[in-house]
Amino acid sequence: MAQKRKTEFNLPYFGIDESGKYPTIYNLKGDYGVVIQINNPVLQYSADPSAYDGSHQLYVNITKILGEGYVIQKQDVLTKKIYNKADSTEYLQQKYDEHFNGREYTDLTTYLVVTRKGKRGSFYSYNKKNYIDFEQNIGKLEDLLKRNSLSPKILTRNEIDLYVKRILSMNFSTNNVSLNNMRATDVEIQMGDKAVRSIPLVNIDTIDLPEKVSTHIERNDKDTLKGFPIDTMGFLYNVPLYQTIIYNQIIDIPAQNMTQRKLELKRKRHSGIPDPANLMCVEDIDNLLVDVARENQMLVYCHFNILVCAPLETIQQTCNYIESSLFQQSIIPNKNAYNQMELFRTAMPCNTVELADYDLFLTTADAALCFFFKEALSKDEVSGFQIRFTDRQGIPVAIDPADLPMQTNRINNRNKFVLGPSGSGKSFFMNALIEQYCMYNKSDKPKWLMDVVIVDTGHSYSGLCSYYGGKYITYSEEKPITMNPFAISESEYNIEKKDFLKTLISLLWKGADGTVNQVESDVISQAISSYYSNFFGKPLFVDITEEEEREILKEAEAEAAQLDYTEEAKKSLDLDGLLAEAQALTNSFEGSSDEKLTYYEQQYQRLYDEQLQGTIEWLKDAQADDLYITKLTEARIKNKEEFKRKNVVELNFNSFYEFALYKIPEIKEQERIPFDIDEFRFVLKKFYKGGEFQAILNEEADNSMFTESFVVFEIDSIKEHKTLFPIVTLIIMDVFIQKMRFRTEQRKALIIEEAWKAIASPLMAGYILYLYKTVRKFWGEAIVVTQELGDIIGNAVVKDSIINNSDTTMLLDQSKFKDNFDEIAKLLAINAHERKKILTINQLDNHENRGRFKEVYIRRGATGEVYGVEVALEQYLIYTTEKPEKTAVECYSNFYGSYRAGIDNFVKDLKRSGLKLPQFFNKVNSMRRPIYEEGKAEILQLVS
């Protein structure tokens, strides 16, 4: 048996010249070109038909810029790769990487090869002017690509060399490339254990193409996807069992006048023989020439070839899928492509010269460019603040939800609005987001630091808070959440703080659903201004003056003089002494017995009256002194109380309440305005000392809250309390604002779950607006999360204060809201294209070889993308909100002393047990401890 002849595969190049402005590759026919790596302009699943039209027009412009004598060769390389990432430093992100490592995915790389055809002849001749024109055109092209965000990168010598080697080996997946022998047959080229097959789209003998082509096609395989625009060649993403696909697209721009003359001559030849086939040909040529003349379209020769590399045993199945997909678009590929080696060689950059005439067909550039591949896959966004979700094929992709879109003016603030019905994966999505927000807080070399404050009503974040060692604060009657919002420094007192306190006082008085009229609002505002002016003015206490003391003494003496002291004085007289003194005076009196008796009686009466009057005067002076001291003491106490009432000596609600009850009547009297001070006093009394809620606004908050990076306020116990719920929520928001001002080195996020409903009232609209506008100044963001459709539709506060100030919208599966989605779309200003994207959430056939996941639509600015929320088991165990699952995880974390150690051992025991996860949860909960005995290697008896 004769041995098959071996032939050396010769490269069709002279070499690569780097002496000019661009590295230029020269082929053996004298053509030269540059290779540019680009990103396709339309993101997959963009849902915008105009994006495909714009991309088409871009390539039309490119053909016109380059003009006659140029060949445009576009190659889209789809490669199956294996995901492998191991550079994460944080525990949960390492587990996230491990979850995806080893997963196969599709990678897309696009190259644009621009070739200037050399003059055909026996010898190659160099034309300097043509080369200068070539460089100028490449410069124009590069600028055009940059302006359209295609990120052009002109390949260097080494990169071109590697690119050619990758085509020769059909290997775009590994770093090292090795070439193998080729065996060409009529149907394929065999390279070891794999085969390469070329599938040209057009057989020029039959031209089995649709009569009309578009820049894109629309899906109609599902009701939810009906009318969804995709790339004409979008089926290439779904080709099974391949290793590499190169979609080779070639546009050769000939001399226009000469080509038109050839067409006209051809038309004459066909019209000379009037049979149906010739008449159809004449009609086609006429239509073509009309398009060229009327629409100023260019005539081009084009070639489209799908180069497929797959294992030998699956290559036929792979090609069958491609051919059937083309057939569904009324494209019947060339079945007579026996020149497999020629077609393979023409896939090499700058080697389209080897295409035979029978591999090219003539049409307009506008029609030919409809077959250009226009889509790009999601790529990691280049940023210092990357948060990872998955793309639509289930591979992690990093996006920047804050900084990059701010820098590119895609958004003007970092605030977010999250909407997802129950069961849509909202809690998992928020846990995944917050986990990554905080993942560097404990790192030695953090990429960023972030403080997160969460107001929750359902214990959705208890696991994550425990994992990060955060502060979890639950409201209870025994230990209410307290805050003294009045205690601020003079520098902190500004119009925003004043407005907050006005909102708080109005809320205490009128309730969340109440209203405050303009007069009442102005009175409260003036009382707050006077309150702080008084405190910061630091008035000195002035005691009773000497003149006031003299007046008090006069009052005491006058009051004492009005009293009758006779009887009391009589009781105090020394009658025996008076008798003795009167007898002594009588003994020295000379006279008769009757005279002595009279004298005795006179002296006794005189002495009695003198002592009585003296005692009365003494008693009167003593009473006056007592009255003076009492009245002086009372006056001083009253003076102090009046000073305290009129002047603020400490900042809290108690002092404000006292001050307001003095100040508001004063304002009311001065301005002659109505104000129900009695209602005000009575309603607010419950927050004053001795009242039911005296601690809430008077006791200082736990200072550790201001330094802790992860704080959760769980207020589920008061969510039905109409008085406390809005007040406590408002207080927490103020805690966040203080924290925001205090922590200058950290990013900040305030996340309000269903608690936002407590503050979504007209009374608090101004404060919410202030909060949303203030967080931007302090490197922060506010995120409102809701699941109730009725809460947002028709709520003016939600629209004006929350949604209008949230440039990022995050929507989970909206299928439960499909009957009301028109209202949601109107409220969120979602256009028709974005709506199509949203309706694809969880609707694609992208579940194969993936774990459980839910999808989320993230709109930053005017446009959004859909991402997957798929997590590792370790993350699931921390995120879960199911009570039995949380109990089992806490059993392990408590036993092993930390959440991380508990999770590690939980996963290890789960794998060793052989149980499914639900069974394992049940077993742990029934045993109330880890299922392995400490220190033993054998599993306990497992009985389901």
Describe the 3D structure:
The chain has 944 residues and is of the alpha+beta class. It folds into five domains: 13-253 and 299-376, no CATH class; 255-297; 387-483 and 701-874, 3-Layer(aba) Sandwich (Rossmann fold), CATH 3.40.50; 546-646; 883-944, no CATH class. The protein has 30 helices and 27 strands. Helix 13 (495-510) runs antiparallel to helix 21 and helix 16 (566-572) packs across helix 18 (593-646).
Short characterization:
The chain is built from 30 helices and 27 strands. The chain is α+β, with helices and mostly antiparallel strands.
Could you list the spans in which at least 5 consecutive residues all have pLDDT below 50?
A: 935-944
pLDDT averaged over residues:
88
Oligomer classification: single chain
User: Structurally, how many domains make up the residues?
Assistant: 5
Helix content: 40-55%
Question: What's the count of strands?
Answer: 27
List keywords for this structure.
single chain; disordered C terminus; Rossmann fold; 9-stranded mixed beta sheet; 42% helix; 944 residues; 12-stranded antiparallel beta sheet
